[in-house]
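A student in our group prepared the protein record below, which I am reviewing. I have pasted the whole thing underneath without changing anything:
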Amino acid sequence: MTASAVSDAETAPPGDAPPTAPLSDDLPRIAGSRHPWRWVVAAIALLLVAQFTHGLITNPGWDWGTFAQYFTAKSVLAALRVTIELTLWGTVLGFAIGTLLAIGRVSNNPVLRVIAWTYIWAFRSIPLIVQLLFWFNIAYLYPRLSVGVPFGPAFFDFEVNGVISGFTAAVIGLALHQAAYSAELIRAGLLAVDSGQLEAAAALGIPRWRQFRTIVLPQAMRSILPNAANEVISLFKGTSIVSVMAIAELFYQVQVIFGRNGRVVPLLMVATAWYIVLTTALTIVQFYVERHYAKGAQRELPPTPWQRVRAKVSEIAVAPRGATR
């Protein structure tokens, strides 16, 4: 700073900001770093995607005419409904049983802890296909079951084959298998909540049910939801295993059709496309549910994809002509 500038600053009246030097176009500008290899990798990736897309369109082996014919066929849609029902029942019952097992795992009762741990250990050790076949053939071990006093008289009995159908056996197998994994997810979410908050709530006289509903559950759900959504998606795709039980779910029905007409690839693509569509729908639901439970953890919720698109369109619309970023 020169002597004249110092004298001007000293003689300036109080409250007035000292004069600033005018901006000059000759000042050095910061140049952005270059990433040539990033563009090389992007170009190679785009080339591979274009090549794959070209093969999908031009290769006659994909047989897109057959794909379009069977994608919305009545038999395929009926099988898709069975797949959705298996996923829904398996998820609801699996997470309901898993919640009870998780509570048993974190309880102070040693008997409940041992029973819950043994259940989880057993059902995670046995392959799902073995469990499904076991429940499908349960009538071989127990042709008739009775309901009554344990080790005492029975009130009524029934034939197992008349009650447990193939669909019911599949639901039981999927739900019990899912419960073992759900229990560990829920237990991890419950343990992720700071115990000091519960001690403070108890000191304030807040009832235990209200503690769980307003303190534990919202925080635990942030840890549970991402893994729980992955489990639901895995269960949805895992329903294809019940095809060994001759249940007309999506993959089994596709097998029946290409067993008749020999069009294996396009029929497999039909099943693949439906799996992708429903998995995408589950992912969208997961995003909004996670966004709902993030309200207490973030001051401002992240924008949804639709909000991002609208903001980008608005930004482009109001940008002056010739402006660059």
In short: The chain has 14 helices and two strands.
